[in-house]
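FAQ

Q: What does a record look like?
A: Structure on top, sequence underneath. For example:
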């Protein structure tokens, strides 16, 4: 994989749910292979929560490698951001906060009770945070979530559309 520049997209919670085995993330990364994080699809991972994927990937990589230092928090965050952009061939425009790239930013509240005590914000983000702590989201500079409320689409419409698709899929 490294020789041909292939990327791996790791979906740990889907793999666990489907009993699809364990990805040797630490081994892949040591071989120079870009490993990104994914959530698979709603049919094989019900929550599509990238925070949960980061936490699960980091913990699972340690167990699979038999090494508590395998996949530290900063590497798990990179898998969810820049490594994903690289896997998509878009690292020149997304994946990190740099001049000339799209301004994709997620604001995460770390002042909740379950975030205390705070020793290391990065570790807290990867090992203890969840999507319910997201307060604001900007994509390409557009403020799409403001104080936990969608700004460009109706929450009710999204839920209705998801349910229509669920019913279509269940009927087929």
């Amino acid at each position: 994989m490294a020789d041909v520049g292939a990327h791996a997209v790791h979906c740990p919670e889907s793999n666990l749910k489907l009993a699809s085995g364990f990805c040797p993330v630490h081994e892949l990364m040591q071989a120079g292979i870009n490993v990104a994080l994914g959530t698979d699809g709603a049919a094989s991972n019900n929550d599509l929560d990238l925070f949960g994927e980061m936490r699960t990937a980091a913990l699972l990589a340690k167990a699979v490698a038999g090494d508590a230092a395998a996949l530290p928090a900063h590497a798990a965050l990179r898998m969810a951001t820049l490594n994903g952009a690289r896997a998509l061939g878009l690292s020149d425009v997304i994946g990190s906060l740099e001049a000339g790239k799209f301004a994709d930013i997620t604001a995460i509240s770390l002042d909740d009770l379950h975030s205390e005590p705070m020793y290391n914000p990065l570790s807290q983000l990867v090992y203890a945070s969840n999507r319910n702590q997201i307060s604001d989201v900007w994509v390409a500079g557009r403020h799409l979530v403001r104080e936990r409320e969608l700004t460009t689409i109706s929450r009710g419409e999204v839920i209705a559309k998801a349910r229509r698709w669920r019913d279509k899929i269940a009927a087929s």
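Q: Is there anything notable about this one?
A: Residues 1-95 form one domain.
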